[in-house]
Structures are given as structure tokens and as C-alpha cells.
Design a protein that fits this description.
Helix content is 49%, strand content 9%. By secondary structure, it is of the alpha+beta class. It is globular, with a radius of gyration of 27 Å. 29% of the residues are buried.
Length: 372
Amino acid sequence: MVRGGIRGRGNMRGAGGIRGHFKKAFIPRHPFDLTLAEVVFPRVGPAPDDSALTSALLKRNQDLSPTAFEQTAIANLVTKIQAVLDNLVVAPGDFNTCQLDEVRQVGSFKKGTMVTGHNEADIVVILKTLPTKEACEALSKKVQEDLKTLMKTEVVTKADVLKTELHDKGFDISNRHACVKVLITTLPQNIRKLEADTHLNAKIMQSHLAAIRHSRWFEENAHHSSIKVLIRLLRDLCKRFEAFQPLSPWILDLLAHFAIMNNPSRQALPINLAFRRVFQLLASGLFLPGSAGISDPCENGHNRVHTSLSLEQQDACCMSAQTLLRVLAHGGYKHILGLEDAIDAQTNSDQLDVKDIFTNSICSAINDNKLL
């Protein structure tokens, strides 16, 4: 008797008995972190004396901090503009071109991470109405008029004369000493109603709303002074090293917070250990495609902040961190911070090349008999 098993198996194969190819699930991995693994890999020798590095970091932070004159100039301008905008929220009067819902300070001025020579502050204005280009222009003129009324009893010098400049994000109000960027956005439910020809760019509006979330998170979680010092140092590195320039201010905030606070004790690390840990993390691949990286705490889901970088930028950031970590291991922290005379001269003329920094620091270490 002939059984029909073969035919049955053939029918099953034709009906989809063979399994299709399934997409492999992506499992992000955490790079090796010596700070978190210190329990498993205990130190066998005494900790190195990092007092010189700590002093250099604090000195560099002092050099990068805004002067008292800069702080006074930006604080006075922010206070005046904030008062005018708050008054438009409470009592707009006959101004009906747009309706203001809320005014919030964001950015480095609000966070306390400003760098000298960059005397700017950011204020986000949330509109109840849709942000048209005409409404933005009318608001800038209204703010300028109210500022003139507010300052009519003051003696205004030429350096204190305010000027307004419109752009695609809102408008700037500035004098010779300071600049306040007024960034326009609208309520979240209005974002989908925006039209490209009539209103301001929707992505820009969303970024301004995100800036408010970032400012709130920073105020609640990153208020430690060491975090602000490290952010200022990292911003300086991004200016001088091309590979780090794609790192946004928000990425630097999260990286500094991660390096200082994400440790077994949950206590802030000393600034010298945190500074060294930043290079260790980047060199081990924290911002590479397969890494878990740092999740954005202000967005839903596991949104890794470094995915905003291109693959080439991620690779360049990792390679440069590896080279600078070698420089740091050989005592070349002055070259990294820009404290050497030769490095300062090059900084004023052009951006630094990581290979040149490595070569110069190694030569200096050999001359100082540190490499034996």
C-alpha cells in the first residue's frame, strides 16, 4: 500500500512549510567601562597623583568662564526682555497679532554653562496661536517698542543701543555686549497644523519645545557644579578638535552627567576622574553604531542620542578619543586643554590636528623622562 506522506510533505512545502528569513533583532551592547567594572577589576597599585591634572582642569575652567562684566551684561538684558515678554503673557493690551502662552529660559545661560566670548542667552516663547512669519515680525517690533519704553529713564550709551534681527527661528535682540535669542514655538497640538509656506518650520518648533524639556531635566538632575565645569571643558574641546564638533550641546550635557554621576556609588566623581572617563567611554565605542550609548531622558522609548551623528562622524569621534586618551595617559593633558604655548598659538590660527597633538605630547614626555 502506497502512503501519501511524500505528497503531503510536498504540499506542506508548497504551502509555506519552509520558514522564511527573520530579521535579526538588534541588541545594543554597553562598551567596557572601567569605572563600573572596578569591583570586578580592582586596582592592584596605588592611584596615580592627579593633583596636577586637577589644577589644570580648574585653571582652564576659570579661563573659560565668562567674566563678571559679561555676566552682568547678559543678565541685565535677559531680565528686561523677560519682563517685557511676561507682561505680554499677562496683559497683552491691544497686541492681538499673536497670543503668548508661556516664556521659558533655556540654553547655556539658564544652565550656568556659558563660555567666555559667547555672551548669548536663549528664551523660548510658546504661542497659543500658529507661528506665522508675520506674527514673529510683529512680536519682535512689539518687544522692541516695550523695551524702549522700559529704558526711557536710563542713560543709554552707543554700546547699549538695542537692535533686532529676524531669522527662521525667531529674532535676536542684542547690543555690543550681549545677545538674547528669542526662539518661537507653539503648543504641541498645533505642530501638525503648520504649513510650510505660511508658518515657521515645524522641525524647528519641535526643537524649541525639546529645548524646554532639556532645560527642565538639567535643572532637576544635573545641577552639580562638577557637571557644569566638565560641560564647559567639553565645549572647549569641541571648538578645537574637528572630530568632536558634531556633538550637540545636549549630547555634551548628557555625556558630562553620565561621566560624573553614573557610577556604583551614585556620588559625583572628582573632575579629574570624570574628565579621563569621558575619553575612556568615547574610545571604547560609547557612540558607535552597536553601542547602547546614552538614552535621551526627554524622549519616549530608547532613543540613543548619538544616532543623530553619521557613521563617519561616530567613527572619527571614537578614533580621536582613542588618540587623546593615549596622550592623556602619557601626561599630555596640557596639550589637550590647550595650555601649552605652542598649542595656544596654533589654536588662534587654526583647528588642532589630533596626530600633531599626539606627536608633540609624546616628544614632551620623552624630554621629561616620563617614557622609559
